Amino acid sequence: FPARAPATVRWCFADQLGSHFLDAPDQPVLLIEARSVLARRRFHRQKAHLVLSALRHRAAELGDQASFWQVGTYGEALDRVREPVSVCAPTTWGSRDLVLARPGVEVLAARGFVTTQEEFAGWAEGRGRRRLLMEDFYRDARRRQDVLMDGAEPVGGRWNLDEDNREPPPSDGRLPVPEPWWPEEDEIDEQVRADLDRWEADGEVSFVGDDGPRLFPVTRQEALRRLRDFLDTRLGAFGPHEDAMLAGDRWMAHSLLSPVLNLGLLHPLEVVHQAEGRYRDSVADAHPLPLNSVEGFVRQVMGWRDYIWHTYWWLGRDFRDANALAAHEPVPDWLADLDDTAVDAACLADVLGDLRRDGWVHHIPRLMVLGNYALQRGIDPAAMTDWFHRSFVDGYDWVMVANVVGMSQHADGGLLATKPYAAGGAYIDRMSDYCGGCRYDPRKRLGEDACPYTAGYWAFLDRTREQLAGNQRMRRPLQGLDRLEDLPAVVDQEVRRGTDPP
Ligand code: SF4
């Protein structure tokens, strides 16, 4: 796709809201609020609110520069537009099909990521048949963008300081960082809320999750405020405990920037440059921010996020249907409904409750509590991808396919991750403060108080033993299976438990 088409009306989707999606600051803009998108899936209420609010705020901000259509389908609006239209390549296979099928719409190269698709293709093809490891991609991008580099070497001499970022949670149950900054709702939010209530009452749409005060930015100004708040108060503390979970501190030192980045309100490179600027200033002031925090954050934004985007396209549209571990269970109703009240397991109940209330939990509860549960119980990976997409305020198809199918459910047979992210209760106990208040015991795999994660872990290994046999990193866990005298009883217990709320 070409890079620019300035003499056209620029159609911006609701996740293309920053000025970097325009070729000139005064370019005419087309914005379409198509209600059919909401009717297609049962989204989290706060996600629907966030997207609509962001789109309407952008329309209000652009004023006469934008023509804003509130219609049933995209086609209804496009049929009425007479000027030549261009659009930056949208973010999903479905929406790309839509724009390519539309006569008179010029499709441009995608924007909003650090590495272009051409650069990724060059990198991936240059690797031949070798695996496309995120770490290699990330180092290449750091070099190319000259981020956290001292000449040809990474600042501090190491590319990846992840080893320093695996500390368990602090014993007093909170990180020493202030509460994040929160946006204030305005009359546009009020209107969005009224519309969503009305459409739901009319049966046009249905939602999961609670309505609630809007927690995430919807304008460029709010997005910059959230970024500044993170850089001022949380960046230094981000790293060490980024993999830990605390029942009483769900935000910890996380940036809460993923919804903003995924709406296109900030460009990832400006976020990375600001974080690096803070680091270099702090070094010059002789009070250096911890490099493991800064590097860990930079890796999330320009490494992992970009990598997930590029693999979404590179691995093709069939990637979503990969199911190497033959997992076919449906998503149980209590999980689909985010019904934490049905669940006794303290970790899962707490995470599900946070998700119901906020539409967001950080990456470890997603991977090691929610994803781990689905992996162990053999829930269909495509159904879980859809569930993650709908239930999270930052969830989009491009985000979730590689994250869920590849990373969390190991459904690609190990293309993206070298081993399944399956773990028993001991891991959750080490990395959280959940187990002390739980009716289950993380050390038990059999009996009334057997931890569903511990027992589920062994039952999972038993079920997938054949598929995982060739994986060197799974050799020891699989050998461990053979030493369990009570394995048949554990497997029997877990088959009976199935996907009933644990
Ligand atoms: Fe979760 Fe098991 Fe710990 Fe309970 S004992 S909180 S179910 S890991």
UniProtKB/TrEMBL annotation:
A Pfam family: DPRP
Keyword annotations from UniProtKB, A to Z: Lyase
Database matches in Gene3D superfamilies: 1.25.40.80, Deoxyribodipyrimidine photolyase-related (1.10.10.1710), DNA Cyclobutane Dipyrimidine Photolyase, subunit A, domain 3 (1.10.579.10), HUPs (3.40.50.620)
Compositionally biased tracts (Basic and acidic residues): 160-169
Signal peptide, first to last residue: none
Record-linked InterPro entries: Crypto/Photolyase_FAD-like_sf, PhrB-like, Rossmann-like_a/b/a_fold, UV-DNA_repair_photolyase
Domain of life assignment: Bacteria
Region feature (Disordered): 154-182
Molecular-function GO terms, alphabetical: lyase activity
Record protein name field: Cryptochrome/photolyase family protein
Organism: Geodermatophilus sabuli
Lineage of the species this protein comes from: Bacteria, Bacillati, Actinomycetota, Actinomycetes, Geodermatophilales
